[in-house]
Amino acid sequence: MINDPIVNSALANCIYKYGPISDLSRTLTDQTLGFSRLNDFNDPYESDYRVIHYFHSIEDEKKLLDPPVNALTELQKLVTDYLSRIRVTCFSRTAVNNLMWSHYAKHHSGICYSFEHSPKSPLFDPDKMSWGNVIYSSLLPELKIFQDQTTRGMLPSILSDVVLTKSQDWAYEQEFRFYNSFDGNSLKYPIKALKAIILGRRVSESDEKKVIEQVTFFNKENKTDVKILFAHRVARSFNLGIHSNSIFQKSAENSFSASIPVLKNICSESITTLK
Questions:
Q1: Is 224 helix (H, G, I), strand (E, B) or coil?
Q2: Using CA atoms, how far apart are residues 165 and 142, in angstroms rounded to an integer?
Q3: Count of CB atoms within 10 A of residue 26's CB?
Q4: Which one of 67, 164, 198, 229 has the fewest beta carbons within 10 angstroms of its own beta carbon?
Q5: Would you put residue 31 in left (φ > 0), alpha (ψ -120 to 50) or beta?
Q6: What angle do CA 29, 130, 169 make, to 5 degrees?
Q7: Other Cβ atoms within 10 Å of 162 Cβ, number
Q8: How far apart are CA 194 and CA 90, in angstroms?
Q9: pLDDT per position as a tens digit, 151-203
Q10: Does residue 130 register a pLDDT over 90?
């Protein structure tokens, strides 16, 4: 990536949320981030888990698992109830992943929000919200239950791996999650936490103008300095870069180079021969 001081400052200690431009006005006006239930996500294995139940003895295992309504049935009800109340909002650790732009930002015609989040400056109150990097694995997370020792109050801690574990097929997302149990589907974010709006490679000139107008108004109203940045293809590669100058973005997208010397014609008349 080009060493751009404005970009470096705007993206320092940040996490990223991709989305369509159509949501920008609401996000800036309401100053909220959307949260979803786990079973609303597109991963069919979301919140799947494997129970490992430790008993004191074989006799206890038979006694607790044999009845029609047994210990395992009751445990599954508790877990299902807890997970159904969890709300999650997802970010990425990277703003330059082509697949993320394609899947979540309308095929590169959307935007990516840059929010500051660090131990010194958390995006949400740690007393009200849990968070962590998603763990990618080929194995289901294990829910370990110990007879007469595991209590209901331990469920949030025990189930954190269930909330934060996904198939390794999703590893490219470099996902970071905030989650907790609450009513509703959105929460307000701290205004000062929004550092930049990154425009995708395929954003039209009209949409670019709309974004600039909305961000300019947001900055004026809230006395903030949210930067407008531009994703671009890095020269000679399939990689993405980010720059603060739209003119640089457009030149970086140009595949033509006029600086390569041309060999002398050694065969038949060239298709580019000038008469």
A1: coil
A2: 10
A3: 12
A4: 67
A5: left
A6: 90
A7: 21
A8: 15
A9: 888 888 889 999 999 999 999 999 999 999 988 899 999 999 999 999 999 99
A10: yes
